[in-house]
Amino acid sequence: MLENKSAIVTGSTSGIGLGIARALGRAGANVMLNGFGETTALERLCRELAAGSRGRVAYHAADVSRPAEVRALVAAAEQAFGAVDLLVNNAGIQFVSPVEDFPEERWTAVQDTILNSSFHAIRAVLPGMKRRNWGRIVNVVSVHGLVASPFKAAYIAAKHGQIGLTRTVALEVAETGVTCNAVCPGYVLTPLVEGQIESQAKVHNLSRERVIRDVLLAAQPSKRFVEIDEVAALVVFLCGDAAKSITGAAIPIDGGWTAR
Questions:
Q1: Which residues are marked as active site?
Q2: Are 125 and 61 found together in one domain?
Q3: What is the CATH number of the domain that holds 63?
Q4: pLDDT band at residue 201 using 50, 70 and 90 as cut-offs
Q5: Which of 62, 96, 131, 254 could form a disulfide with 73 if both were Cys (CB 3.0 to 4.6 A apart)?
């Protein structure tokens, strides 16, 4: 499906990003992994992905909160694969605090990692995509790009900004064969969310099951986590030719959260 296409997936050494990288590789794409991790574990991960992929797998350690490193990531993928046809902006961090107590440095770090990195990566890959008259950009946003929750001001501002960026880019490249879309998952059971379950259980003196149902999934009508493979399958579809007329969309995959 994606043979002879090459992808960058930021934040792809674990969680949703890793699931997307695996799915793109199975669909035939070359994949440049990106994220943090211990060297031996990253080497093992690259070997594992390559064994299950029909394309090649490489890794770059760019800190995407730094514009120069984003540019270096794109340049490395172009050198390794010849082009960047698919860009998946997935990297993200979270910090929770009331607005009046929100540390300025945390606000800046969240914006740099989520919103600003998306801008710099898109800016770097677009010239090549436009020159080839083909490209797919998918921003992994969140249901929090569509609705708000308290105490997550930086994250929600960044995610709303990603959707605005998605729509603007889609309009600018609408006649070029390049599409730009956002996918907006509800709660997905990732290592990060597992940590939230443990901390919430201790704070509220609740069982794991009560935290999942009554705290995390309270706003998610399906009362089940979105699965990583579901998000990955949607991204792969958006990267294919069947989705060539889908652009500027912010697609919820949220168990009905935003249907309320």
A1: 155
A2: yes
A3: 3.40.50.720
A4: confident
A5: 62
